[in-house]
Amino acid sequence: QVRLEESGGGLARTGESMRLSCLAAGRVRSTLAMGWFRQAPGKEREAVATISFDGKNTYYANAVKGRFTVSRDNANKYQVYLQMNNLKPEDTAVYYCVATPVSTWATFAYYYKAEDYEQWGQGTQVTVSS
Q1: How far apart are the C-alpha atoms of 34 and 53, rounded to whole Å?
Q2: Contact 91, 15 (CB under 8 A)
Q3: What integer is the mean pLDDT of 85-108?
Q4: Strands (E), 8-130
Q5: Span 49-62, pLDDT tens digits
């Protein structure tokens, strides 16, 4: 069974940076599309940034374009990062790492709908103060 191990998160001030990490661990036998979603209090869950298994294709929510970068570790494709720069109070949310298997011929595939992801991490809180 695949589990997603998230790290990072915490408290930051407006304009600061923070990096989240996620490792797909356990019985990982598939090529995985991965990414990050977030949910703020009283708001719907939304995709933040996602990335294909080969790392060549990415999706970013409009609210984070130019500030956030999603990447995969070259040595370990099951390790993904979310570099968050110029944080804003509206980035405050619980951030979830997500993953879903894709066919070995579809390593370029990436998704931005929650229903497309089979595995979800437990979430890590990011709080940005003004």
Answers
A1: 7
A2: no
A3: 96
A4: 10-13, 18-26, 31-39, 46-51, 58-60, 68-72, 79-84, 93-102, 119-120, 124-129
A5: 999 999 999 999 99
